[in-house]
Amino acid sequence: MGRKLVGRTLALFLFAFILATLSGAYAWVSLEKHPYNEKRKGDPKRGMMIYGQLCVSCHGDKSMGDGVAAPAIDPKPANHTDQGRMGRLSDEHLYGATVGGGLEVNRSANMPAWGLYLDEGEVYDLVAFLRSLAPFRGK
Ligand code: HEC
């Protein structure tokens, strides 16, 4: 194989790889392919561990919306212990916000789309943890 051909094959391979990654990631962020299943219950303890790794930088280690990154962000990260706010958000809404980010639920894009990084089970775990902070009280 000539050098040129090797280069081209590599480039093509890379392109295919990036395309596959992007479309795969997109497929997961799309809630149509991963709709909320109300029968599925997550584990709040596992959710807390994930939250500690991915969410506290913005939402704070007490989940009050006052993480280290919060001062740099406007609108501010949600206070997940705020019953008035969280009590009106259904589990399905929390799932959609976590998977698709703020834009998915008509909120700020400052809230990232975690569906790119998490598997479905982890999202249910996170919802279960959020629910342990503030139960749903109806819309
Ligand atoms: C880069 C900062 C940042 C990180 C990290 C972050 N969030 Fe958020 N989050 C936000 C902001 C900002 C909002 C408020 C958006 C608004 O009010 O428009 C928000 C709001 C939310 C909401 C409420 C949505 C609503 O409709 O009120 C949920 C639920 C949420 N985040 C879950 C999470 C979870 C779970 C994680 C970790 C996996 C996480 N967030 C990590 C910035 C962040």
Number of domains: 1
Report low-confidence residues grouped into runs of 5 or more: none
CATH architecture: Orthogonal Bundle
Q: Please tally the β strands and state the result.
A: 0
CATH superfamily heading: Cytochrome c-like domain
Largest sheet: none
Q: Compute the average pLDDT.
A: 89
Basic shape: elongated
Beta percentage is: under 5%
What is the CATH class?
A: Mainly Alpha
Describe the structure.
- The chain contains six helices and no strands.
- The longest helix has 27 residues, at 3-29.
- With 139 residues, the chain is mainly α.
- It has a single domain (31-133), classed as Cytochrome Bc1 Complex, Chain D, domain 2 (Orthogonal Bundle), CATH 1.10.760.10.
- It is elongated, with a radius of gyration of 18 Å.
- The model has no long low-confidence stretch (mean pLDDT 89).
- The structure holds heme C.
- Heme C (HEC) binds at residues 51, 54-55, 57-59, 69, 73, 75, 77-78, 89, 94, 97-98, 102, 105, 107-108, 110-112, 114, 126, 130.
Give a brief description.
The chain has 139 residues and is mostly helical. 50% of the residues lie in helices and 0% in strands.
Keywords:
139 residues; mainly alpha; Cytochrome Bc1 Complex, Chain D, domain 2; 6 helices; binds heme C
What topology emerges from the helices and strands here?
Blueprint: H1 3-29, H2 44-54, H3 56-59, H4 83-86, H5 91-100, H6 120-133
Helix pairs in contact: 2-6, 5-6
The protein binds heme C.
Heme C binds at residues 51, 54-55, 57-59, 69, 73, 75, 77-78, 89, 94, 97-98, 102, 105, 107-108, 110-112, 114, 126, 130.
